[in-house]
Amino acid sequence: MRRFGPPDEPPADPGPMQIEIPGKTAMLLVKLAEDIGAKTPGEVVGQALGLMQMLRSASAGGRRVVVRDPATGHETDLALGL
Length: 82
Description:
By secondary structure, the chain is mainly alpha-helical. The protein has a domain at about 40-80. The protein has helices at about 25-35, 40-60, and strands at about 65-70, 75-80. Strands 1-2 form a two-stranded antiparallel ribbon. Helix 1 (about 25-35) crosses helix 2.
C-alpha cells in the first residue's frame, strides 16, 4: 500500500492543504461543485471521500451498497475497483 502523507489518524482539523490534480480533473471538480451548489470544490472532495470510505467499509464487512431506481426497481451495486 502506498502512503502519500501523514498517519491514518490526522489531528481533528489539520487545516487547509494543497494537492496537485490534473487539469481535467480540476475542471470536473469545479463543474460538480457548481452542479450540486457546493460552496467550494473541497466540499465535493469531502463528499466523494465519504462515499468512498462507506463503500470500503461495507465491502470489508461483506455488505453491499446499492442504488435502486424506484420507478423500475432496477438495482445497481456500487463497488470500488481499486
